[in-house]
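Next comes a concrete protein, fold included:
___
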Amino acid sequence: MDFKKHLKKLTLLHSNDLHGDFLAEKVDDNLVGGVSMLSGYINQVRAEESNVIYAIAGDMFRGSVIDSEYKGISTIEIMNALAPDIVTIGNHEIDYGIAHLLFIEKCAQFPIINANLFIKTNHARLFPPYHIMEIDGMKILFIGIITNEILAQAKQDDLIGSFIGVEEAANEIGRICNTYNRIDIDFTVLLTHIGFEADKELAALLQPEWGVDVIIGGHSHTLMEQPVEVNGILIAQAGVGTDQIGRFDIVVNTDTNSVESYTWNCIPINAQNCPVDEQLDNLIRKYKTITDQKYARVVTRFSRPLTHPRRNTETALGNLFADIFKESLGIDVMLLGSGSIRNDLLGPIVEYGKLIETFPYDDGIYMLKVSGQDLRQMLTYMLRDDAFLGKTEFYQLSKGLQLVYSYRHKKILSLTFNGKEVKDQDIFSIGMQKFHFNNIESFLNLTEDKISALAKPTIVSTSCLDILEEYLSSHKTLNRDVEGRITIIDYK
């Protein structure tokens, strides 16, 4: 028997966390990224190679005014033109609601898979959990898994459930693999949107008999030099946006249903090696022409650019936004979700479109009353170890509130408001976005009883964006610094 007949080449291209990054940007006089050049590269590979699959590991939505203006419908039309072979959903696919996502899924001309979202009443899955693709005589099994943050996004929909742990995900993967291995699956890929660290945990739990070969991940925006191998499984992720694409060139052994050999590269999407897909470029320009008319106007000008380089630290832009909500609403403290700020820089000229891209979550704001003791406990919980690993929600604090936290001792050493130490019996009015209020127990460890103990929480604004736009348009040359509202000492 000629053994070489059972070795087949597969080219697996993959993206994750595109976040509406549709347009190329000029970097050092070179065009970089954008869906048009990304599509041009994919088309080029499809023309050069025989067995090509392009997969997207979640978060196609959010990040651009084109996506926000059309609530994802424009994104699906653009993705249809990009023509991925298989996609799994990310947590931001839920931003416009479960019902809207199911409508969007009907518009997609490509399969969307997810194994761990279901209807609580009958455990019926919302999406197909897997997809088997046949190419050059090979059967390739794809399974989709999403992060547990999906539960936070879908909090208002009591009918939607999910298993949330990597152990449960591993069991579900095993169930699917055990069921379909009888079809002689040659190659198995997990499309996950759970983050790189969770991918490694998941891989370690999978039994070799299940035959998982590769995990294509997303959510943590990890830009890799080479895949990591855990438990014989290759794990890869391609950063964020359209500035690059991951490329596996794999030799599949169809006798042993395993990877015989592979190479992997993170390919830069730029004008030097990626031709422009003119038809897709025209489609994007059509949307951009419309949105430019609405979003190109100038709202304000800062005295300098304000930055938000990391979610789990105090930032200049986070301070400004938190202060705007505090002042506009007349509350004592604004706890602003740090992840609500989606760009790492804004200004000095602030156009409406850039403001929308930077702060795309236009939810309402709740006001609740808490004691000084509760506030201290909330902030201590926020600063648990998961915060420093980027695994949990973090909050920007409005002016007047300052804390000093000891990482080594896991405690707040000092918490002051307007220069005075916060006492247990002090009472504060706290502002929180609706999403964060709905998840306050899991994010800040504040129970329902505590929330209502002093006063019934009330909605004080139905639109974050209204507040930001109104305040910024009436204030010029605004500025903020990182001023020590959150100070971490003895951090390793």
In short: Residues 3-289 form a domain with the Purple Acid Phosphatase; chain A, domain 2 fold (CATH 3.60.21.10). The longest strand covers residues 258-268. The chain has 16 helices and 29 strands. The chain has a mean pLDDT of 89.
